[in-house]
Amino acid sequence: MRIGINATGGARTLEELVEVARRAEQDGFDSLWIAQIFGLDALTALAVVGQQVDRIELGTAVVPTYPRHPMMLAGQALTTQAASGDRLTLGIGLSHQIVVEHMWGYSYGRPVRHLREYLDALLPLLRGESVDVHGELLTCVGQLDVPGTTAPEVLVAALGSQMLALAGGRGCGTITWCTGEKALLGHVVPRLSAAAASAGHPTPRVVAGLPVCVTDRPEVARERVAAELVVYGGLPSYRAMLDIEGVEGPADVAIIGDEHEVGAALDRLAEGGVTDLSAVVAAPDADDHERTWQFLKARV
Fold first, then answer.
1. Apex CA 41: angle with CA 29 and CA 116, to 5°?
2. Cβ of 226: how many Cβ atoms within 10 Å?
3. Cis omega before residue 62 (within 30°)?
4. Domains along the chain with CATH numbers
5. CB 77 within 8 A of CB 90
6. Are 114 and 100 in contact (CB under 8 A)?
7. 11 pLDDT above the threshold of 90
């Protein structure tokens, strides 16, 4: 299992993000991920980071689809590819009804149809192909020309059965958040893999985004995660995964414990088909943060 660092929340400025990226690359981590939430623009930030580090994979986890027409997103992604030497992995997702409708003013009706039509346009645009999509929800006609780039890999934030079938059927992997071992290994991996196999695609990537902390004070770390991530427990898509897990909230799926306990949890994920970890270091203090970082570094 490849080990990556998710810098969302831990790096609030471009300067901080670049420093995290430099350290992650120096320490041998496979990837660096950031989310598009209510701060830095993820793709712009990764274009800047791509000019400062030379090797590490750079991924969005994730960019919401509704506010960006697929031609605009494809153009921005290919520009980030050009800036980073083709090291971008483009993670996209629907976001959530409360955000899409109440903050952005779009309709969240028929989200699977929306994503299907979005991928109809986005995937060929990234390959430099001409598109002529006239869907029920989306129109996209045209072509992009960004010389010297290749199409980035696309990951879809898919949790529900229909979304997993769509992602796997289009040859896209998935990137998850606040989804624990039981839901990943018993629901996400088998459904995504089955859809990919049925469509004749290779086994897809499964990038698991999870809070991680190596500590002798697990109760303190879980209290912090519970407080910081409480909102996710009430969002329907995450709530469904937590219900599969049989737990109350995101803190219950965080990987927290000593080196043996955290290592065993990561081993189970890897053996069950999770290909990548996007780790949010969720430590209650600087010492545990460094302990967690060094533990993850040793597993790269």
1. 90
2. 16
3. yes
4. 1-157 (3.20.20.30)
5. yes
6. no
7. no
CB 275 within 8 A of CB 196: no
Query: Which has the closest alpha carbon to 167: 131, 124, 118?
Result: 118
Confidence of residue 10 (pLDDT cuts 50, 70, 90): confident
Please state whether the predicted TM-score (pTM) of the whole model is above 0.85: yes
Q: Which pLDDT tens digit goes with each residue over 162-217?
A: 999 999 999 999 999 999 999 999 999 999 999 999 999 999 999 999 999 999 99
- Taking only the tens place, the pLDDT of each residue in 17-48 is 999 999 999 999 999 999 999 999 999 999 99
What are residue 6's DSSP bridge partners? Answer: 33
DSSP notation for 117-141: HHHHHHHHHHTT--EEEE-SS-EEE
In the block, tokens 């960019």 appear at 63
Instruction: Pull the structure tokens for residue 43.
Output: 């793709």
Helix (H, G, I), strand (E, B) or coil at 14: helix
The closest of 139, 138, 170, 137 to 155, measured between CA atoms, is: 170
Cα angle 94-146-123, degrees, rounded to a multiple of 5: 35
